[in-house]
Amino acid sequence: MIFLPIFVAVAANVFYHVASKSIPAEQNAFMGLAVNYATALVATVILFLVTPHEKILIEASKTNWACFLMGLSITGVEAAFVMIYRAGGELSTASLIVNILIALAMLAVGGIFWHEEITAQKIFGATLCLVGVFVLSTK
């Protein structure tokens, strides 16, 4: 069952980047993001209503700091990609470079905060990623 969510994540990310690059340059980026969030709010409320759940106040009471941090993080990610594309970032490489750098950061975060093992294989993979970022970043 892991393949379906992976497929959805990949498809959603492709649409996300196409949409980010297609937001009109003459529109204030944050108005575009406000429309994004309004659309996301409607979609998530519908998904909440059609999936198994407890009463809304019980579900809301389960919220912790992570939900708020994720909301702020999403805002940062979306604003950053709009700015990257407005600054001339290429659809074919901007996401790839950012996601490689995220993977490298997650290697460190996983090792430091979750005590995940950082093996020679992971270090070798990270080194290849850094080489890839260098190759993609040079013209």
If you had to describe this structure to a student in words, what would you say it looks like?
- The chain is mainly α and 139 residues long.
- It has two domains: 1-89, no CATH class; 92-139.
- It contains six helices and no strands.
- The longest helix is centred in the first third of the chain and has 22 residues, at 29-50.
- The chain is globular and about 50 Å long.
- 6% of the residues are buried.
- The model has no long low-confidence stretch (mean pLDDT 96).
SSE order and pairing:
Elements: H1 3-22, H2 29-50, H3 56-61, H4 65-86, H5 94-113, H6 120-137
What pattern of helices and strands is seen along the backbone?
HHHHHH
* Radius of gyration (Å): 18 Å
Number of E-state strands: 0
Biggest beta sheet summary? none
- Overall geometric form: globular
Overall mean pLDDT stands at 96
Oligomer: single chain
Number of domain modules: 2
Given helix and strand content, the structural type is mainly alpha
Short description:
By secondary structure, the protein is mainly α. It has helices spanning 3-22, 29-50, 56-61, 65-86, 94-113, 120-137.
